Amino acid sequence: MAAETDASTIGPATRRPASLSPAMETDAEKLRFIEEMTKNVDAVQERVLAEILGRNAESEYLTNCCLAGAIDRATFRVKVPVVSYEDLQPYIRRIAEGDRSPILSGSKHPISEFLTSSGTSGGERKLLPTVEDELDRRKLMSSLAMPVINQYIPGLDEGSVLCFFFAKSETMTPGGLPARPTLTSYYKSDHFKNRTDGRYKICTSPLGAILCEDAFQSMYAQMLCGLCQRNDVVRLCTVFASALVRAIYFLQQNWEPLATDIETGVLNHRVTDPSVRKEVGDILGADLELARCIRTECSKEDWAGIITRIWPNTKYLETIVTGSMAQYIPTLNYYSGGLPMASIAYASSECYFGLNLRPFCDPSEVSYTIMPNMAFFEFIPMDGNGDTSQLVDLARVEVGREYELVITNHSGLNRYRVGDILRVTGFHNMAPQFSFVRRRNVLLSVESDKTDEAELQRAVERASSLLCTFDAAVLDYTSQACTKSIPGHYVIYWELLLTRVPTP
Question: Known InterPro entries for this protein (predicted)?
Fold first, then answer.
């Protein structure tokens, strides 16, 4: 039977055994760490800034700012300007072309690679410098997520996670440094390959399948291994909700050859990558009963609840459903039979920022508690017309106000405008909690009006409610501004999902 879990009733466990097992004590330590970091935010921020400025003091960039070895906050604010990517691009280009002098970071912490952002600058993808020990901070943040979730749904260490993770292609800069997406960097790191912190890390997807850059082979292998271990799976995980929807689509299109592989114990010939074939071969075995089950469930016209029909012990979905990913919530509710969804972390190529300490709240109420040990954070008030002279510290933001996020990280980005607009929703201890509002300058505009992605999402949700009587829902959408007619207008393109297949 599928786990029946109502997201509206999930709350943290209030009773714990008098004596904790070693595993539970590890969780307790992580939770205590969160409490410690969020109780004296300003002191933690002071220490983090001093650490960053101390290690990067010799860098050309900070030297040009005339800090003269000062590591206090007041001098930093006066001497170091607020910048955008375009301001740093000349420094970044020199590093990419092979200049190994301490340009942005100190000589003891040289730039080790570039993380590629989904955004562009001047038609080029952004190259965001990072240092080797940044992975340690990201690993620390990742290790905090499951202890938080386990307060709400215990026993997750007794099963496996069906994750759909995908490494993307990478390039080398002229100076010989890798340039790749953030997650690809993590998947290829020793932190991921040799992860041993993990009773929550038992993943059905073999490493070779995750690292395979052929999209079909990677998805096929991960789906096949997830099916072979269907009764062990207690949670499904993708980074973004769109990837989980894409995985279910893939199952719809390929369940017949997948079932054949399971029936015969022989991997499909379309999977040609040697490492993938070897690792999948270690998992795949002939299983007539499982093949019959997959054919029975997937051949039905109605795919409502297909996730819990195929993976009956699934307790929740772990994926980001905030921001532009909110559009996939109705589709995931349909496919999962209403399983809870947890958007646990807020991160970007520049930095990992915070955690959702109420992971099973309604997606519209998701707020992230900023962890003050990750970087030095400042905020530009949006009601001040973006005036960068009015920046406020993390400990001094106000509930209800919107701010643009500015970070100083260990990799040499100093007072860098990330471009995210956040709204303060409350506090956990002394640490502010933020909801994501939108990306700066991500707007539709016809003539003088401005429509951001949140407004567009709400409009689509209201309009799509009319489709219910037709047994259809909006699966995905995109938009553009049209000025061919007067007055100008927006054109919205919908991709529809039929929730009931019409009989011929």
Answer: GH3, GH3_C, GH3_M
323 and 229: one domain?
yes
Q: Which domain holds residue 126?
A: 43-132+348-426
d(C-alpha 105, C-alpha 94), whole Å: 13
Q: Which uninterrupted H or E stretch holds 163?
A: strand 160-163
Going by C-beta distance under 8 Å and a sequence separation of 6 or more, which residues neighbour residue 200? 146, 150, 156, 157, 161
DSSP single-letter state for residue 337: T
Do 352 and 249 lie in one domain? The reply is no
**DSSP assigned state of 113:** E
H helix runs in 56-107, sequence order: 60-64, 73-79, 85-96
| Residue 496 host element (H or E) | strand 489-498
Average pLDDT, the chain: 85
Residue 404 to residue 418: CA distance in whole angstroms: 8
Residues 126 and 162 both lie in one domain: no
Q: What is the pTM of this model?
A: 0.82
Whether residue 330 contacts residue 294, with contact meaning beta carbons closer than 8 Å, is answered with no
- 428 — phi, psi (to 5°)? -110, 115
pLDDT digit string (tens) for 385-435?
767 788 999 999 999 999 999 999 999 999 999 989 999 999 999 999 999
